[in-house]
Write a structure and sequence with these properties.
single chain, alpha/beta
């Protein structure tokens, strides 16, 4: 597992607490994000894609600057956007684990 996160260690600690080996890139506190754009979207996710494919990791995750959005990369380096992650999460929880309940969705609307 390879991660980038806004709070150093938070991604790594989460995975390690759950028995998943995780390395972290861009894991230092830096309000300028090392000069990189902090959005977890292409093309800004390219360093994570390279780290995952070169390091032969199963997946990589990246959070934006304040941690409210996430992007992912599969082992082949293919980008998985935040909307796809949400869909996969719903499929897993409702479809595979058969968890009951409603799903709430907030869509921003023009004021």
């Amino acid at each position: 597992m390879r991660c980038t996160a806004p709070q150093p260690g938070c991604c790594r600690n989460f995975f390690q607490r759950n028995g998943i080996t995780c390395d972290e890139i861009r894991g230092t506190r830096d309000p300028r994000f090392g000069g990189a754009h902090p959005e977890p979207i292409e093309p800004h996710i390219a360093p994570l894609q390279q780290a995952v494919t070169i390091g032969k990791y199963d997946a990589g995750f990246a959070a934006d600057g304040d941690g409210d959005r996430i992007g992912a990369v599969d082992r082949a380096g293919a980008f998985v956007n935040p909307h796809q992650i949400f869909s996969l999460l719903v499929w897993h929880l409702a479809g595979m684990r058969d968890l009951p309940g409603d799903i709430a969705k907030l869509s921003p609307s023009p004021s």
